């Protein structure tokens, strides 16, 4: 306990709080000293008398308590949270507030149960707590809002626990007096004893009326990503937070005492709390039960025990996750397998082989009643998970389920889709490969003459088809087929988006970049049809259409990668290509562009200065237009004649970028020759130094860094032997989306069987060799023993020598 809270609290300032003079955290304090005397002498009269005389002044009404409206308690959290945000510090003392007293309630009542009943009557009896009974005065509490019992249990030593028991016997209402602070609000002595794993103290508190439904709302016990989203309302005691969370947090323990015991894997505490009628179905703010908490903290023994004591595996949290699907989302393989074993039922047994039926209601992606896609299913969460833990879960039951889907419908659907895609691709390639560059015909003498002579026809010749020419007929047929097939696929996709919703559609297909590019190419094809007939209004439209045609053929070709993902030895390499482009190449391009822009402008200024110096010396210097013409028209003899003359190859700033890119590919002879031919000797030397730095930094360093990054990505993915399973699974689930709900339900009925008389509940039958794992572990232990014996023999021989 001290290790948990020690980093949060400064306990060296004992003299600043009166409570720490009674019980200090360093085994000191007046009560501690009197208790030591009582233990040595056996006379407890002095410690009991001291408790009765000293402590009542620190409590409301001498230990009988006082009723506070929850808005007064919530203000304490709000003030502390604002102070933490402003000062960027944690902890601190409690602010003084003017609380609202409840005049209509008798706060001096002797029976604690009567007080609780009265509070329920005031709050309306609907479970929304509006008033709380506080025993220890707010201004007399410790640094984290703890009472004297809280101080004793923070230390948790046997001496402090004995003192806490004697205080509770004198003032029973302190048993439920919880901490009041932003970080530990609601932490009761029962919570503390569970964290301390002190079973005797737990039993004592429960026998003395400890509340088993007390909730701890402190930020210290929240998930990491929810701590910055906390806010309060004066109408409710609980803290409002964002429900979107990843549940990460070592101290996230689920508010309730039973959830605390489940999070700490304290089996005896779970049994004790259940013995005192603790409800295993109660949920925290995130909707997590004690079984959810066992999954989050991977406490498999606690999970199994809670199930035996009445826990429900069908309970949903606020993100609609059961313990099974929560384990799937978080990648908790052992917890996932444990829950599967709890849910399965034995069909038959023969020797080492057992046949089990696994309920698929929360496992399969197809709803067993309607056939719609269940995106919160375990299979969907695992397949679209991106961690190595998710990949390791694609074996056993899920692997057999995916095989059943593949053999039943996915293979056929994917093959059909591939055949239609190949037909579309071939048609698309033919349509654009036989496009004419200009509209001409041939007269009787064999010479080529244009059919039409106005300038509009010269730019819109693609809209005119000469059906007497076989190539024109083929072009018309193929372009018509491409247009119709693209239009049909767009209409189908629109229906899918309307049915799934855009967000769902995007979440499914964003894992397939090749397919997204293919769908975009279909839209561009339809845009090309519009642009083709707009050429009569603008002569430049044809150029834009040609540009779209190039983009479309590239996007359509890349779609082959989608089908390659389903192949065992190719799927992983497709992912390598995606990761290299999406991660390594983007990082490299950003860094490379910075150096490229800087060096390109440096070379531009250098060549510009050499060009001016050449003009000053009355030497000939080629203009930019002549340089561009020289790339194609100057003969080899003329170029050889001007080899020793300076030529400004970088005439414009934007052209210098392209020249620098060409230099990084190894074509630097022309640039270096002109640097060497610069008339100014100083500029020539400066250019050579700049050239050397560019080659070292950009060509050698950056490109080798890119190679290293790509090698790391390749080794990371290729070392994963089961990556092809995930790619195949994604292809199968994507194929499911393209089917109708009725088709999916019929397919599900074929690979599943009824669980019981109620045929609506379906299960997946799987044969398991129950001794296979035990046999492999025995074999490993036997090999270890043999190796150990050989090692001992070798050591003995060495000693003898």
UniProtKB/TrEMBL annotation:
ANK repeats (start-end): 185-217, 286-318
GO CC, one annotated term: plasma membrane
Keyword Ribonucleoprotein attributed: no
Molecular function terms from GO: calcium channel activity
Subcellular location: Cell membrane
SMART domains assigned: ANK
DNA repair found in the keyword field: no
Name by which UniProt lists this protein: ANK_REP_REGION domain-containing protein
Organism from which the protein derives: Parastrongyloides trichosuri (Possum-specific nematode worm)
InterPro entries: Ankyrin_rpt, Ankyrin_rpt-contain_sf, TRPV
A GO biological process held by the record: calcium ion import across plasma membrane
Lineage top rank: taxon: Eukaryota
Cleaved signal peptide residues: none
Transmembrane segments: 414-434, 476-495, 516-534, 546-564, 585-607, 689-709
Predominant subcellular localization, coarse grouping: membrane
Membrane protein topology class: Multi-pass membrane protein
